[in-house]
Amino acid sequence: MMRKYKIALIPGDGIGVDVLREGTKVMDTICSLGGGVSIEYKEFDWSCEYYLKHGRMMPEDGLERLKDFDSIYLGAVGYPGVPDHVSLWGLLLPIRRHFQQYINIRPVKLLRGITSPLANRGPNDLNFMVIRENNEGEYSNIGGRMYENTPMDMAIQNSVFTKHGVERVLRYAFQLTQEMGKRHRLTAATKSNGINHTMPFWDEYVQKINKEYPDIQTDIVHIDALCAYFVSKPDSFDVVVASNLFGDILTDLGAAIVGGMGIAPSANINPEKNYPSMFEPVHGSAPDIAGKGIANPTAAIWCASMMLEHLGEVELAQEIMEALQIVLEEGKWVTPDLGGSGTTVEFGDAVCHALKELR
Ligand code: NAI
Ligand code: MG
């Protein structure tokens, strides 16, 4: 019996289109090698270009059209010409929220073949997970603007932290820490000194949920210090859990210490599987290199692996990671961001070739 998956593709803007093509090529290759999996894709052209034509990022029934897919595979959204808050609030955030993708998983893991910019740090030192709250927190659209174009011009944006939202992300992080084993250590990002309502609330629930996981040692660390520790002692983390904004910022730093934006993958997960989950590189559309064919597809290919893992295809997911690391180690086809002269397509082809060799 074939195991069949239906995947919605949203390449989006800029390099999102290029890197997603390589990710699907890698998935097609692994399916063609046997193993009983077949993937059916449907591509959606929702993007800033779509916005400029239609006045919206996706059609009115966009979410309805996505809801029956097994997963969503997204490139990047946002491009000069359309304000970033328009593209984000018109597509990515509605998908994350409507589909209750309240967990954002971002591995900070140094792959074989990549040199960290941190001196004397190897794959054993850089290997942890960041769990970012993905549905509420600082990215709430509650607030407003008043007295625009007057001397009293002002804006207010409220953060939203709910018991329901905070408990579920923390419970997920504790559970993951338990399953990951290692040292049973969970680090929670806070800023309860300066932000004196929502962050003490967050800390209180960290301590409360910790009682359900008595084996786990939690460290509640202020976000500013935590940024420094990502650089000075990255080997001390197993799982880091953070609110929406803190997790967003931390993970660009996380990406930087394991080789840059071209590497870092992310998964927007609805753990209950009531809705499709969405897999997308951490990076954006990179207008500075768009159209040059030199975007690093590593993050997108890693996302494909995370997607297959989420769908239950753990072996295929591991094979992709193995092939990816063979190509990175070999170094011949790596893209300019990693110091090579390979193109996006050459790198993707090399991963497909490595997959075939592995079999
Ligand atoms: P960016 O991630 O697109 O680019 C930052 C820097 O990293 C650039 O120098 C770029 O060339 C480099 N870079 C990124 N991905 C790369 C890759 N795969 N290979 C090689 N180099 C890579 O972030 P930026 O410039 O802040 O945003 C550009 C646009 O993307 C904006 O419109 C922004 O809103 C959007 N964006 C979308 C995201 C998403 O769809 N999830 C996430 C971040 C930004
Ligand atoms: Mg970000």
TrEMBL record:
Catalytic activity: (R)-malate + NAD(+) = pyruvate + CO2 + NADH
Listed cofactors: Mn(2+); Mg(2+)
Entry keyword annotation includes Manganese: yes
Annotated ranges, domain Isopropylmalate dehydrogenase-like: 6-351
Enzyme Commission number(s) of this protein: 1.1.1.83
Superkingdom classification of source: Bacteria
SMART domains hit by this protein: Iso_dh
Enzyme class per UniProt: oxidoreductase
InterPro entries given in the database record: ICDH/IPMDH, IsoCit/isopropylmalate_DH_CS, IsoPropMal-DH-like_dom, TTC_DH
Family matches, as Pfam families: Iso_dh (PF00180)
Keyword line: Manganese, Metal-binding, NAD, Oxidoreductase
Family: Belongs to the isocitrate and isopropylmalate dehydrogenases family.
NCBIfam families, per the entry: PRK03437.1, PRK08194.1, TTC
Identification of the protein by name: D-malate dehydrogenase (decarboxylating)
Species: Bacillus carboniphilus
